[in-house]
Amino acid sequence: MIRTQATDDARRTGWTRRRLLRSLTVGTGIASLPFEWRSAIAEGPPDVDIRLVAAPDRVSIGRGSGTDVLRFTAEVVGGRADAVRPSTGYLGPTLDLRRGERVRVEFVNRLDDPSIVHWHGMIVPARDDGHPRFAVAPGHSYVYDFTVRNPAGTYLYHPHPHGHTGRQIYFGLAGLLIVRDDDEEAVGLPQRGQELSLVIQDRRVGNDNQMVFKRTMMDTMTGVLGDTVLVNGVADAAFNVAPRTHRLRLANVSNARIYKLAWSDGRPMHAIARDSGLFDRSEGMQTRPYIVLAPFQRVELLEDFGVPKKSHKVVLVSRSFDDPGGMAGMMREMMGGGMMGGAMMGDAQGKELSVASFTVAAGSPTKNDPPTFPEPAQPARKGGNELHTRLAFNMMQGSLNGRLFEMDAVAADERLPLDEETIWTFSNDTGGMAMPHPMHIHGVRFRVIERSTGAPVDLREGLIDAGYQDTVLVFPGERVRLAVAPSEPGMFMYHCHNLEHEDGGMMRNCWFGPGPVRST
Question: Quick one: which of 29, 158, 264, 370 has the most CB atoms within 10 Å?
Answer without folding.
Answer: 158
